[in-house]
Amino acid sequence: MTDASRADQAWTFLPVSLDVTGKTCLLVGESSQAARKAELLLKAGAVIEIIGSPAAPAFAKLQASSSLKLANTNSGNPLSFSIKSFQVSDLDGKALVIAATEDTTLNGFIAEQAKQRQLPVNVVENPRLSSLIFPSIIDRKPILVSISSSGNAPVLTRLLRNQLEATIPHGIGQLARLAGRFRDQARKVLPTVNQRRRFWEAIFSGTLADLVYAGRLQKAEQHLHDSLEQGASIYAGGEVYLVGAGPGDPDLLTFRALRLMRQADVVLYDRLVATPVLDLVRRDAEKINVGKARSQHTLPQQDINHLLVTLAKQGKRVLRLKGGDPFIFGRGGEEIDQLAEHNIPFQVVPGITAASGCAAYAGIPLTHRDYSQSVRFVTGHLKNNSCDLPWPEFVQASQTLVFYMGLLGLPLIAAQLVAHGMRTDMPVALVSKGTTPQQQVVCGTLGNIVSKLEEHQVAAPTIIIVGDVVKLREKLNWLK
User: What is the dihedral sign for C-alpha 282, 322, 450, 365?
Assistant: First the structure.
């Protein structure tokens, strides 16, 4: 792989944590960057051999710092200096190598030699030569949060770290240590992984955290003990979350949707759920694709209903993730009807429906005082090659029509609207894959939209907007 192709990759470095406790690391250079790397290694418990002068200003400051004093109490003096030139033999027995000189040629040579020995190496300010980079760190031992741009924008990662640091309580490390002392007891009281996960989620977001952050550690420990004494029955029941995923842009998710997505044990998702949205689901959750494309159902609706009931009865938190809004052409009502019959608790989280999201991203207001005082959502799905719809009701002044799932039936929809009295120059917009980077908008009129569809490759999912409000797109298209 060339340096250029590597730099262009969206993901270059694997985020891992490296144990260097008591291990010898080599640092070459006397720069301020070298001193910062040495301080990080000291905090991690490493022993450091430095090719450089201890009198260098950056190292003189380091030797007076609290980081070195703390390291000295644990393992004697963890720093040793050699004022000499780098030799390849200096790599022998090292766990990690850092090249931080002002000589770019020397830095490259050190990196090459380290890689030949399969040693992790960091070249300061040169991620292309590095096999390891140092992320920005938020330190709340034993909680460590690292943020990396894979070496592309270190200043940006530091700014992001500063933002996140303000939101992470300083006492969260104590909270983690307290929980660690009770892990074995929790395993005995809560026999399943799901029960333990739900227990700790409730504990970390409830009274225990407040007590720890307030410094009331003895009372916090008693609270944790009492919570475990209540036993496993509290955390045994399953639940279903019926969540609208919106039309595609993950930024349109609600806070509540995101919270439930990150605590579900298993996810049943539809074809219309965008990949960036699905990526926000808890990483270790089981994911089941239940369809559905036109005339191709991965699972029939009845089987989906049954699966929701079965999984919930197993004590799992089940996320039913639907594109758009679950109660607008989403058959969400059928699913929760089955849950109610089996006395399974459920929550419903509305999502931004395709009509609203796609129209907004296309710059088309669905209502406007001068053009439309009402909007009507209609399913354009063909059944037996026909749409049995109340066409005369659609031909009304000052009304906007939005057809879902109508791409295949567009010729029939246009013909029926004209046949029932709608004028042929009525503006029409097709919004394909709305709110996503692949959004495409094709505008025309009832008289020519079918021919325009033949000229453009328009992919599902597509909504059809019919009404004078489409005229406003040219002026209000904010995504130009």
Answer: negative
Instruction: Say if residue 392 is preceded by a cis peptide, omega within 30 of 0.
Output: no
Pick the catalytic residue: 292, 452, 468, 471? Answer: 292
Task: Check whether residue 251 and residue 283 sit in a common domain.
Answer: yes
- Sign (positive or negative) of CA dihedral 236, 238, 244, 245: positive
The residue among 323, 328, 412 whose CA lies nearest residue 377 is: 328
Rounded (10°) CA dihedral 329, 330, 336, 337: 40
Interval 263-315: pLDDT, tens: 899 999 998 899 999 999 998 899 999 986 555 556 889 999 999 999 999 98
Contact yes or no for 241/349 (Cβ under 8 A)? yes
Q: How far apart are CA 247 and CA 241, in angstroms?
A: 18
Tell me if 319 sits within 8 A of 347, measured CB to CB. no
pTM of the model: 0.70
- Domain span at residue 281? 239-352
Q: Residue 292 catalytic?
A: yes
Within-domain flag for 41:
yes
Q: Are residues 318 and 380 in the same domain?
A: no
R_g of the chain computed on alpha carbons: 30
In this structure, of 54-68, 91-105, 324-338, 444-458, the range with the lowest mean pLDDT score is 54-68
Residue finishing a domain among 337, 352, 367: 352
Rounded to whole angstroms, how far apart are CA atoms 475 and 469? 11
- The pair of structure tokens assigned to 224 is 């944790």
SS3 47: strand
Confirm if 447 and 383 have CB atoms less than 8 A apart: no
- Does residue 400 sit in the same domain as residue 468? yes
| CATH number, residue 113 | 3.40.50.720
pLDDT tens digits, one per residue of 333-366: 999 999 999 999 999 999 999 999 999 999 999 9
The pLDDT assigned to 6 comes to 45
Asked which of 335, 352, 369 is the last residue of a domain, the reply is 352
332 and 418 in a single domain? The answer is: no
